## 1
Amino acid sequence: MNATDMAVISVKNLSKRYGRIIAASDVTFDIPKGSIFGLLGTNGAGKTTTFKCMLGLARADSGMVLLGGAPLRPKTFEELSYVPETSALYDWMTGRDHLEFTRRAFRRYAAGRARELLELFGLDPMRKAGKLSKGQQSALALTMAFSIRPRMLVLDEPSSGLDPLHQRHVLDLMIDAAAGGATVLFSSHQIGQVERAADHVAILHQGKIVVQGEVDQLKASEKIVEATFDPHVPALDGLDADPNVRRVMRNGRMIRAFVRGNADEVARRINVASPTSIRVLDQNLEDIFVAAVGAQASSAAGREV
């Protein structure tokens, strides 16, 4: 990272235990200005713990966090919006009350922007928060967060409870904010959302970052050779031992080889066995996630800590 890409959000060696449970272990990442950083992981991976420790809502056992180039302080929240996964709204207050509270608390509050967002999400500002659905509560919290025109946004599962159309609105809001110079950190267990919005990603599993990097570079780091045979996949001797092939998946009549080197050469070797179809594909973020997290991801259970 050069001088022009100095991190706006920097987390170094952040660790947190709850008794015997390691909720975050040596978590480290830097986010430059105008970047959208997706923290991807299953439920219970440690995403919420990381955010709480970053923002002083939980005390980290070790590590350092810099927000806007400085440790967390009251002034930080003049330029930072945080939306937790669990609603922090007051049930007895209306949407208008919440926005008035926001206006009084933040000098950068923009009433016009708030009105635009209420309309975007189809919110009635006169309804009390306790009468709103989970998705509507999320939309109101996001309206408050984006209406102060923050320099930094920390969003924990920001589209939780929203319908697909409004989920897309949230992604568009993040992209627009980053284009305007804001730095966005958001968590999700929905791979498609992270792939659509983020330019950087970290995959968190059991409290540890197992993969991190620019999304495009991670996707370009491997190719997938996919072939179909009839009636079944032949032995293809030596393919599993090829140093350029990281792993081979066989499923019925289909085989998929994940290749770090010359994918065309691997495709040529497979083609000798006369498949009914063969193609070379770019890997997507789901492929990267499954490879990083492994079989444990499919059986991971429990709630976020």
## 2
Amino acid sequence: YANVDPASDGFEIVADYVAPGVPSTVGRYSLDLFGPRAVAAMRSGTTLVVRDRDAELAPEEGGAMFAAIGVAAIVCVPLVKDGALRGMMAVHSATPRDWSDAEIALMREVAERTWAAIERARAETDLRRLNDELEKRVEERTAALEKANEELEGFTYTVAHDLRTPLRAMVANARFLEEDFGDAIPDEALDLARRQGD
């Protein structure tokens, strides 16, 4: 399996499963080194099938690179998503091999199922990350709202406290006016003064 950097021609073989005595192909590579046939197949989303490297590929057409990593025959299935090569999955042999149609179909099916599992895992990871970010935002906004409520309560208390003293004086003065000059005050003004005291 290889991850492809869509911004370049580079790819990294992340893991391989090899028979005893067969060298590993894990590492970083440039797709161009595998020749125009491999590049065209991978970029178009077409399965690359090479049954005999020496008979099918000249050294300058990728044969030298396949030989350098010990690949004499290969089936490589590309993953093209949104118009870009994203990954590759391959089975290869150190000796020429006449891949059957059933083997090639099986490789395509395994690759498709693997891509689906990878995309599902990435989507689940993205969803968990987004949920974590959302929870963090909710916590931050809740904390900000609680702080704003505390500040509002403090302001309300201060305003109520600061207004209480002048209001008491106004109510007391209204009562004094009513007691001392109630008969001289028009009924409408007296009613207004009484409401101020409530």
